[in-house]
Design brief:
With 136 residues, the protein is mainly alpha-helical. It is built from six helices and no strands.
Length: 136
């Protein structure tokens, strides 16, 4: 005989509550996953041997957002507006930002990255002014 649990919830499915989750619940779970990834790293659930073998990220890694490390990421500026740039393809890690701010060679990296950052921000301002009809 099948138990009440199996009748109320699809017992054959490995995650019996899969139909109970709403879109809002899934969005909240994804938000919490992103927060955990930011705090503990994306491979937080890996076993200890795999974690020890994996190289720890540094702020010089190419997948780190240089704009976020310098000051702020322009992709975070216009969230919820028609000028929203979308999610940043690079990683925003507060721990690496703090490591960058306290690094002895910070000025060297800033010198390398700031020109590109400034050019990107100026281009962004021009595009938004054109889009709103406020050309200068």
């Amino acid at each position: 005989t099948q138990s009440t649990w199996g009748v109320l919830h699809n017992a054959a499915h490995p995650y019996p509550f899969h139909r109970c989750c709403t879109q809002h619940d899934r969005a909240k779970m994804n938000e919490l996953r992103a927060l955990l990834d930011n705090l503990m790293g994306p491979d937080r659930n890996a076993d200890l041997k795999a974690q020890k073998k994996k190289k720890k990220p540094t702020f010089t890694d190419p997948d780190q957002c240089r704009y976020y490390l310098l000051d702020f990421c322009p992709n975070e500026l216009f969230v919820g507006t028609k000028s929203h740039l979308g999610d940043c393809p690079n990683t925003h890690n507060e721990g690496l930002r703090e490591a960058f701010q306290s690094d002895a060679h910070k000025e060297y990296y800033m010198w390398q990255w700031e020109d590109r950052y400034l050019a990107y921000c100026e281009n962004l301002i021009t595009q938004i002014e054109i889009g709103t009809g406020r050309e200068t």
